[in-house]
Write a structure and sequence with these properties.
2 domains; alpha/beta; 9-stranded mixed beta sheet; Spore Coat Polysaccharide Biosynthesis Protein SpsA, Chain A; globular
Length: 314
């Protein structure tokens, strides 16, 4: 696997403030990528200039494409159609990679056959805007699985590396999407790989400085303000809408999932849409006891208006 090519995929949009640091960290990898493909979603700041300069000086080929300008998820989906068959690593525009990120990912993925879908992810070092460390993201206590992927994402996009079979699966599934676009592209990848009985490698060591700043798409969830916002999403219907959007997007590719995963997805969608099969509860789980309790509580709050909580095994 030493000579296996890796393509780095990066989506950008008005990321000039932090982009140069991230690009430098990618060139400083102990395991160099074979190429990098960037999809810029209509930046109006200095991002295009920075990318042009980088393209002329990078130690590997760099291609910059125009994004679809329909949001981050569609920009990332468009990127999946670009690389040749092989390994791909997704990169955010505002983080910084640790030097051994790609090497660690490839060491892990080498344990899985290239013709069987596999996804690598890792912990992250949470930092402030100046890259001062604030802590580490949590470890998953119960491990990856489709029952977890239906209700939670433990594979953030800025850590994901896919092996060739997982890339082929994701590229094919992206072609299935018509009007149902997943709200979170990385969550969809985690659902897709686990639903197809692929392997997920979760590295307990961090590989990314996860920069927190006012422009974060979602953020780490640390701090009173972030935690309050996430709790609000659990109880005001936002989280349920996320679950539904992700499940509907996944349903477009249900024939790519295992039979067991298809059945789970069907039952879960029936519950979310208010038409559950009372004879067949679906099994779902989040990673920690507090998260599981919050999931139960958020489900219970729908009881007056929805049959959602009654037919779920937590």
């Amino acid at each position: 696997m030493g000579n296996t090519p890796i393509t780095v995929l990066m989506a950008t949009c008005n990321g000039a403030t932090y982009l140069e640091q991230q690009l430098h960290s990618i060139t400083a990898q102990t395991r160099q990528p074979a190429q990098m493909i960037v999809s810029d979603d209509g930046s109006t700041d200095d991002t295009p200039y920075i990318l042009r300069h980088f393209t002329g000086n990078a130690p590997f080929p760099v291609t910059v494409n125009n994004g679809p300008q329909k949001g981050i998820a569609q920009n990332m989906l468009a990127l999946q159609t670009c690389p040749p068959n092989g390994y791909v690593a997704f990169a955010d525009q505002d983080d910084v990679w640790l030097p051994d990120k790609l090497a660690r990912a490839m060491d892990a993925l080498s344990q899985s056959p290239t013709n069987h879908p596999a996804l690598y992810t890792s912990r992250r070092i949470i930092t402030d805007a100046q890259l001062n460390p604030l802590g580490l993201t949590k470890l998953p206590h119960r491990g990856p699985g489709f029952a977890n992927a239906l209700v939670q994402n433990i594979a953030p996009g800025n850590t994901i590396v896919l092996n060739p079979a997982a890339l082929t699966l994701a590229r094919s599934a992206a072609c299935d999407l018509k009007t149902c676009i997943p709200y979170f592209h990385d969550w969809w990848l985690y659902q897709l790989v686990t639903g197809a009985e692929g392997k997920v490698f979760f590295d307990p060591d961090p590989t990314v400085y996860y920069r927190q700043h006012k422009g974060n798409y979602l953020g780490a969830g640390n701090g009173i303000v972030k935690k309050t916002a996430r709790l609000k999403a659990l109880f005001d219907g936002t989280y349920r809408n996320w679950l539904l959007e992700q499940a509907l997007a996944l349903e477009c590719s249900s024939d790519r999932l295992t039979r067991e995963s298809r059945n789970q997805l069907t039952l879960f969608l029936q519950i979310l849409q208010g038409t559950p099969d009372v004879r067949r509860p679906v099994q779902i789980y989040r990673q920690s006891i507090p998260e599981q309790l919050l999931l139960k509580l958020s489900m219970a709050l729908y009881r007056l208006n929805s049959p959602l909580p009654r037919y779920i095994k937590l």
